[in-house]
């Protein structure tokens, strides 16, 4: 399959870009409530996501936008935090990376979903110019759902950044028709 992807399709599955960072929450990384500082989590997610984007594109990548972050659960001091990032869809030069964050119970070892986020990365050449990247082939149901909704999220992000006009956001418009 990998052989086929390289030769015929130039495409990779989300699993092939999967990047997992596991680390503890230390005292210097917390807020006054002794929970992980939001900016620290953003940095950990950015790091994992940029490695996933690099694995998918085999290029230099830069963060173009942070499209969505949900800090649904506080992450207490001492927690073991796992950040898992996968490229959910690739466009021409940009790619969406989905990040799931889990915390691990010390005694049972059970993992609970704490946060999630969606970042956009752009592959660039040595001069910083955007460059074409391989496609993504989603495999699981969740990967297919994320793949399908990614164009809508890209259009929303471009709209909010003032890079497209409302009438160009065709996928978004279709939601209201
Ligand atoms: C990201 C960057 C390369 C985009 O450059 P640009 O001149 O806007 O290039 P383009 O308009 O051709 O956009 C390139 C791709 O990014 C996408 N893109 C640009 N801004 C985006 C945004 N806000 N949301 C989603 N996608 C975006 C475009 O849609 C395009 O995607 P496609 O080729 O897959 O269709 C450029 O803005 C940059 O280098 N920014 C700084 C990045 C950086 O330093 N990040 C770290 C922050 S500290």
From TrEMBL:
InterPro entries: Cytosol_ACT, HOTDOG_ACOT, HotDog_dom_sf, Thioestr_dom. GO terms for molecular function: long-chain fatty acyl-CoA hydrolase activity. Gene3D superfamilies: Hotdog Thioesterase (3.10.129.10). Keywords: Hydrolase. One of its GO terms (biological process) is acyl-CoA metabolic process. The keyword Hydrolase applies. It comes from the Bacteria. Residues 15-127 form the HotDog ACOT-type domain. One of its GO terms (cellular component) is cytosol. Coiled coil: none annotated. Belongs to the acyl coenzyme A hydrolase family. This is Acyl-CoA hydrolase.
């Amino acid at each position: 399959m990998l052989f086929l992807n390289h030769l015929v399709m130039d495409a990779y599955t989300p699993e092939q870009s999967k990047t997992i960072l596991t680390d503890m929450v230390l005292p210097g990384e917390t807020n006054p409530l002794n929970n992980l500082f939001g900016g620290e989590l953003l940095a950990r997610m950015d790091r994992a996501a940029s490695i996933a984007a690099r694995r998918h594109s085999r290029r230099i990548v830069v963060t173009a936008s942070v499209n969505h972050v949900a800090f649904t659960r506080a992450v207490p001091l001492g927690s073991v935090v796992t950040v898992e990032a996968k490229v959910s869809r690739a466009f021409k030069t940009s790619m969406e990376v989905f990040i799931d964050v889990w915390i691990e119970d010390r005694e049972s070892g059970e993992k609970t979903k704490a946060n999630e986020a969606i970042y956009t990365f752009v592959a660039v050449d040595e001069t910083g110019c955007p460059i074409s990247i391989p496609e993504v082939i989603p495999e699981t149901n969740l990967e297919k759902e994320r793949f399908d909704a990614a164009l809508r999220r890209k259009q929303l992000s471009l709209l909010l950044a003032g890079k497209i006009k409302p009438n160009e956001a065709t996928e978004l418009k279709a939601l209201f028709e």
